[in-house]
Specification:
heterodimer; A: alpha/beta; Rossmann fold; 2 domains; five-stranded parallel beta sheet; 12 helices; about 45% helix; B: mainly alpha; ABC transporter involved in vitamin B12 uptake, BtuC; two-stranded antiparallel sheet; 11 helices; about 5% strand
Chain lengths: ~400, ~290
């Protein structure tokens, strides 16, 4: 019994001593990266983790930030909000990170935001979160400690409507999945359409597990729209594409427009021939080679694309880009703001005020106290799927 | 008019799948009195196996699809020996809970083997749409309808006109009497599981080119298949066929003429109404109740 007590005491003392050592040695920039590396959202988290690990290595090879080493601690949320909160707490309290990069999805990001009280100016943990999720709840209204990198639903909707009015298409039908993502997309389209003189002649919904949308498409097509916009992610978008071709709506002169959610070569592969001619707004990374040399992002895009594809032997995706931007924005803020290791509050200030004009993968960022997404409609391009690849529309 | 036909065919495609799944439910229910919650996973396995044979091993679809049918039968038998037989002594409820467990295991296993992403499967003939009475149909939809019709015809002949089929029916009507008449009841039960698995796998294999194969596709199909079985009267195979088609067409029509948002709600509303007014099912032969 005595022995056990002594051993335990020794252990506790030893542990606290070690802990002290770790605390005292704040000689590195320690950043927590938290992604859905496994689980149902692994297709997001996996490329994000790869991008972050690649960047860590590259930055340290070049001598770190302000001459200080960068250490990225990667953790896995399994795509689950509760796990995300546990891991975020561990990163903040045990690992002592000064900023969090990720997570991949809006529900996990929102859960961390609530748990760490990042929506309050006087948050208990002074740790900014740069999320790779696009949900409007993260940035509207602005949360002091939360930033995001992907293009939002609102921007994608604006780009689509701009494209349609440019093509003089006045009548559109909208098809969307009946969840938060789809409804948000539809709301954005509705408000923007009337401003640009585009009329929404019909709106139909379907469930996330539905497997046949010909009825909804037939109903929309009967209104004779010039284009049908589909707002969803995952397999439903593939089925809509196939059903659209099956009904021969492309031969009736109707355009099928998808969202940035389909900016993924997997979507094209699953659709096969049916994807030909589909139009969608997306980030520039998918067509980096095609961009004119005058494009401000061209150099950054090509560099990242080559680096990523050389290391991992797989095509780069927009999701890897979200993580690139999240980490590099933090790095940019650390450099420009001359932030000391461990000072999360100063880092937040620097992110908000010192990073404007940062050229990333998702676009040119302009973070400000009023805008924590920082992208504009110019950062998106309209793409067309031709012969199984993404091409820039003229 | 063209629109109406389009809606009806949209419904029929899914309806046929619900019907096959519903019959799968019935076969096991008739044999053991168990509602098999893993029925949807049989459908999913059918889709996944077809993907493996056709897209990974590059076998001809004309070999793959019959093979999926046979493998489905094997899955059914393994399921009986692995899950149902060891538990049936403990009562029907225990087995039902066992099937829920099995469904989770099958779903998880499929996720580990085939991954979380949806998988595309090439259709049997071609993907070119054909025009029919002004509606535009996927050829695979016609394939689904024709293959199902053939399967149903075979089953109808089997159960109505062969000794083996009649023996299975006898076991479901009165196992004791069947045993006394010299029918090997145990073997007939195994055969029922075999057919149930085979039919469900066939449904999965047929639908995969239209809807993609995905590890969690079974849950929704099982729910709708169960609805089909209830609408037709649990245990009544022609009833489940009609119930499934009815359910599918209703979904198609309500998505077309009402709002697509109400589609699922309407299907379940009909289920509740059927349970209220005709709990024995829409299609029933006058049958004495066991007292």
């Amino acid at each position: 019994m005595k022995r056990i007590v002594v051993a335990l005491l020794a252990l506790i003392i030893g542990a606290t001593w070690c802990w002290k050592v770790v605390e005292a040695k704040e000689k590195v920039y320690r950043i927590g990266a938290i992604f859905a590396v496994t689980g149902p959202a692994a297709w997001l988290g996996d490329p994000e983790k790869k991008a972050v690990e690649l960047l860590e290595e590259r930055i340290n090879k070049k001598g770190g930030i302000n001459g200080t080493e960068l250490e990225v601690v990667v953790m896995d949320t399994h795509g689950d909000p509760q796990t995300a909160v546990l891991k975020a707490r561990e990163l903040v309290t045990k690992k002592g990170v000064m900023a969090l990069v990720g997570p991949s999805r809006t529900p996990t990001s929102a859960a961390i935001m609530k748990a760490l009280q990042l929506e309050r100016k006087t948050a208990r943990f002074k740790v900014p979160l740069v999320s790779c999720a696009a949900g409007r709840i993260l940035t509207k209204p602005v949360k002091p400690w939360v930033f995001t990198t992907p293009q939002t639903n609102a921007l994608a909707a604006e780009k689509i409507i701009e494209y349609l009015s440019g093509k003089r298409i006045k009548r559109v039908g909208v098809l969307y999945v009946s969840n938060g993502f789809g409804e948000d997309g539809y709301k954005n389209l509705k408000t923007l359409a009337s401003k640009h003189g585009v009329e929404i002649v019909g709106a139909e919904t379907y469930g996330g597990k539905d497997r046949d949308m010909t009825a909804q498409l037939t109903k929309l097509a009967a209104q004779r729209p010039g284009a049908i916009i589909n707002w969803s992610v995952g397999p439903t978008s593939v089925i809509v594409t196939k059903n659209f071709k099956q009904l021969g709506l492309d031969r009736k002169g109707i355009l099928l427009i998808m969202t940035h959610g389909q900016g993924n070569i997997k979507y094209v592969e699953l659709c096969g021939d049916a994807a030909e001619g589909v139009i969608l707004p997306a980030g520039k990374i998918l067509v980096a080679q095609e961009l004119p040399n005058t494009d401000p992002q061209k150099r950054v895009l090509m560099e990242f694309k080559e680096m990523y594809e050389k290391t991992y032997k797989e095509p780069v995706s927009t999701f890897a880009g979200h993580a690139y931007d999240a980490l590099m924005l933090v790095v940019e803020a650390l450099e420009k703001g001359k932030v000391k290791p461990g000072d999360g509050a100063a880092l937040r200030e620097a992110l908000e005020t010192k990073t404007a004009g940062f050229v990333g993968i998702d676009g040119v960022f302009h973070y400000s106290p009023e805008d924590h997404n920082g992208l504009s409609v110019e950062d998106l391009v309209m793409l067309k799927i031709e012969k199984g690849t993404f091409r820039l529309t003229k | 008019m063209a629109q109406l036909i389009q809606y009806i065919f949209a419904g029929l495609t899914m309806g046929v799948i619900y019907a096959l799944t519903g019959v799968g439910f019935n076969l096991i229910y008739n044999a053991t009195g168990v509602i098999n919650f893993a029925q949807g996973e049989f459908v999913m396995l059918g889709a996944m196996l077809l993907y493996t044979l056709q897209e990974v091993l590059h076998w001809s679809p004309f070999i793959s699809l019959p093979l999926v049918f046979i493998l489905g039968g094997v899955v059914g038998v393994v399921f009986e020996y692995g899950v149902v037989k060891p538990l049936i002594r403990l009562g029907v409820i225990t087995v039902i809970i066992g099937t829920i467990g099995a469904s989770v295991v099958l779903k998880g296993g499929a996720m580990l083997i085939w991954g979380k992403n949806a998988l595309a499967v090439e259709p049997l003939i071609s993907e070119k749409p054909v025009a029919f009475l002004g509606a535009s149909l996927n050829i695979q939809v016609l394939v689904v309808l024709v293959v199902t019709a053939i399967a149903v015809a075979i089953f109808w002949y089997f159960f109505g006109f062969t000794i083996l089929g009649k023996a299975i029916q006898a076991c479901s009507v009165n196992p004791l009497a069947a045993r006394l008449a010299g029918v090997p009841v145990e073997r007939m039960i195994t055969l029922s599981f075999c057919f149930s698995g085979a039919l469900s796998a066939l449904a999965g294999g047929l639908i995969a080119p239209i809807t993609l194969a995905e590890y969690d596709m079974g849950t929704m199909l099982a729910l709708k298949g169960f609805c089909a079985a209830i609408i037709g009267g649990l245990g009544n195979n022609p009833g489940a066929m009609v119930g499934g088609l009815l359910l599918g067409v209703m979904e198609g029509l309500s998505a077309g003429y009402l709002s697509s948002g109400y589609k699922d709600a309407l299907a379940f509303l009909v289920l509740i109404l059927v349970l209220f007014w005709r709990p024995e099912g829409l299609i029933t032969r006058g049958k004495g109740e066991r007292v």
